[in-house]
Amino acid sequence: xxxxxxxxxxxxxxxxxxxxxxxxxxxxxxxxxxxxxxxxxxxxxxxxxxxxxxxxxxxxxxxxxxxxxxxxxxxxxxxxxxxxxxxxxxxxxxxxxxxxxxxxxxxxxxxxxxxxxxxxxxxxxxxxxxxxxxxxxxxxxxxxxxxxxxxxxxxxxxxxxxxxxxxxxxxxxxxxxxxxxxxxxxxxxx
Length: 190
Fold this sequence. Notes:
Layout: H1 3-16, H2 21-32, H3 39-61, H4 69-88, H5 95-122, H6 129-160, H7 165-187
């Protein structure tokens, strides 16, 4: 296995790892606000998240950014909670570009959650560009798998079972809100 393949696999496993479910919950809650005919917007959002994630990983690996892990562990569920709440607020015109920027910023925060481990791994490499690129491509591929599963379930739920999308959005957002609240309470940051 080449170095590129190793980091590609590591990025893919990072995003779909059930033990790191905070990323999965974030992606699912992010998707919940969008219907089947808005897949393009979701792909842009997920890519913005990956770009933010990638920037933070690079900056952390190069020792440009360092934030204490207890703060990061608080901020990650806070981003999920804020995304869940924003899903149930009415979408005002012009708000979509703001959501892209916020998602990119949330990607920066989520990237910090894995940066110490990746920094250890990349610290042994003479060139971090290729492993970092491979890791982030793996991350994006994992997110696309999550999106495919999500939209398949959404298709079945909304089109076949005739559940209204606003109920679906409320259910997924409420579940994400509850999970993020539990993570915040367990964090004991307050």
